[in-house]
Every structure is written in C-alpha cells, then in structure tokens.
Hints:
The protein is an all-alpha fold. It has helices spanning 2-53, 55-60, 63-102.
Amino acid sequence: MAKNVAQSANLASLDQKLAMAKRCSHEGVAAGAKAAIVASMATAIPTLASVRMLPWARTNLNHTAQALIISTVAGAAYFIVADKTVLATARKNSFRHVSNMEA
C-alpha cells in the first residue's frame, strides 16, 4: 500500500516536471520565433538595399547568397534567444522549487 502511494507521488511529481518542461520549451520557441522575425527584417533591408546600390554587391551576391545571409542570421537569432529563454525559465523555476521545498 505504501509503495503504491509513493509511486503515485513520484508519478505526480514527474507529470508536474514534464508540464513545466513543456511550458519552458514553448516559451523558448515563441521568443525564438519573434527574434527570428526581427532579425530577418533587420538583415533583409540592408542586404537588399546594398545589392541595389553597391556595384560590388550587385555583381557578387546573387539571390542564393542573399537568402543565405538572411536565413543564417534568422536561424542564429532563433537558437540563441530560444536557448537563453529556456535556460532562464528553468533557472527561475528551479529557484521557485527550492524556495517551496524550504517553506
């Protein structure tokens, strides 16, 4: 009987941890997507403008190169911001969990 109670408590704790992990990852994805959109716009405008105005860029940067520049910056922004957001949320939740255990 006591073993079943301990197992149900462990399962409840595991479910709570899983729900918290899903929420942390969802927040990271949302923040990363926002950062990727902003970075895409911030990169696309000067890239496309330089291709129209600078003779060197017009000669050497074809459509594939322009897309590669923009998508690389967007991808980097996504992963950096998503990682930082997930880590910050996990850190905040771990401190909250420690303070709840002490009380």
